[in-house]
C-alpha cells in the first residue's frame, strides 16, 4: 500500500486553472508560451500575473514614461495569441525588485483570487552555466512566488487582512513549475503549437523588433531542449522543474 505522504512522480495531466507569475512582459512568452498554448487548448483557464511593467526594457529612444504602457499592451496582445485573456500587472519597478512582504502579499492575493491548481514561475536558483537566465528580477519573483505558494496563500493566518478585508479564503496550490531552472526535469513538446508561441513573441515589438533571426534563435534553443530531454529528433520543447507542494 502506498504511503499517504507519497507525492506524484510527475505533474497532473490536466488542471482547471493555472497562474503564471513572471517579472517582465515577454518572460512568459520566451520561456513558456508554447506550454501555455497546450494548456489553453486542453481547456485550462490561465491567468498571467506580471510583476513589473517592463519600463526599463527596450532598444530605442522610447520615453521611459511610455514604455510601461506599451509593454502592457504588448503582453496582452501576446497573451491573446495563446488563448489567455486574464492578464494582470502589479506595477513594481523594473530592475529593482526585492524580496519583500509586500510582494509576497500581492502574489498571495492573486493566488487566492484565481485559486489555481498549478503555478508557473521563474526559478529562484542562479544558473551558473547560463547566467543570462538568472536575472535578479526573475530570481526574486521566483522566490517570492514560492513563498506565496507555501506558506502564505494556504495559511489563513498569514496576511489576515486578505481574509478580513477582502474575503479571500486560503488556497493550496498543488504544484509549481519553475522555468529557467538548472534542474529541469519535465519537458513539454510544443512542436505543434510553435507558431502560436512565435506569434506571441512577435507581439513584443519593443523587445524583439531588432531580432531578424528571432524564429531561428528560439526554435534552435527549443530543439536543444527536446534533444536533451529525450524527445524524438527535431521536436521542440520547453522545460521546467516541477515541484509538488500539496
UniProtKB/TrEMBL annotation:
InterPro entries: GlcNAc_PI_deacetylase-related, LmbE-like_dom_sf. The keyword Signal does not apply. This is LmbE family N-acetylglucosaminyl deacetylase. GO terms for biological process: glycoside metabolic process. Gene3D superfamilies: LmbE-like. It holds the Pfam family PIG-L. It comes from the Bacteria. GO terms for molecular function: hydrolase activity, acting on carbon-nitrogen (but not peptide) bonds, in linear amides. PANTHER family: LMBE FAMILY PROTEIN, N-ACETYLGLUCOSAMINYL-PHOSPHATIDYLINOSITOL DE-N-ACETYLASE-RELATED. The keyword Zinc applies. It comes from Blastococcus saxobsidens. Keywords: Zinc.
Amino acid at each position: 500500500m502506498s504511503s499517504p505522504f507519497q507525492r506524484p512522480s510527475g505533474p497532473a495531466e490536466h488542471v482547471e486553472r493555472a497562474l503564471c507569475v513572471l517579472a517582465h512582459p515577454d518572460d512568459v512568452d520566451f520561456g513558456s508560451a508554447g506550454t501555455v498554448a497546450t494548456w489553453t487548448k486542453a481547456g485550462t483557464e490561465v491567468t498571467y500575473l506580471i510583476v513589473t511593467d517592463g519600463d526599463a526594457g527596450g532598444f530605442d529612444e522610447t520615453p521611459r514614461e511610455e514604455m510601461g504602457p506599451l509593454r502592457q499592451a504588448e503582453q496582452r496582445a501576446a497573451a491573446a495569441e495563446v488563448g489567455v485573456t486574464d492578464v494582470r500587472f502589479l506595477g513594481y519597478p523594473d530592475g529593482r525588485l526585492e524580496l519583500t512582504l509586500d510582494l509576497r502579499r500581492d502574489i498571495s492575493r492573486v493566488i487566492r483570487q484565481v485559486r489555481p491548481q498549478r503555478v508557473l514561475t521563474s526559478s529562484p536558483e542562479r544558473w551558473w552555466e547560463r547566467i543570462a537566465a538568472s536575472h535578479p528580477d526573475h530570481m526574486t519573483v521566483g522566490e517570492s512566488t514560492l513563498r506565496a505558494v507555501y506558506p502564505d496563500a494556504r495559511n489563513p493566518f498569514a496576511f489576515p487582512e486578505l481574509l478580513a478585508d477582502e474575503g479571500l479564503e486560503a488556497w493550496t496550490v498543488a504544484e509549481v513549475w519553475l522555468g529557467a531552472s538548472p534542474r529541469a526535469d519535465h519537458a513539454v513538446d510544443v512542436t505543434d503549437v510553435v507558431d502560436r508561441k512565435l506569434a506571441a513573441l512577435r507581439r513584443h515589438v519593443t523587445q524583439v523588433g531588432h531580432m531578424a533571426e528571432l524564429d531561428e534563435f528560439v526554435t534552435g534553443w527549443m530543439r536543444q531542449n527536446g534533444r536533451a530531454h529525450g524527445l524524438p529528433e527535431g521536436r521542440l520543447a520547453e522545460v521546467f522543474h516541477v515541484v509538488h507542494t500539496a
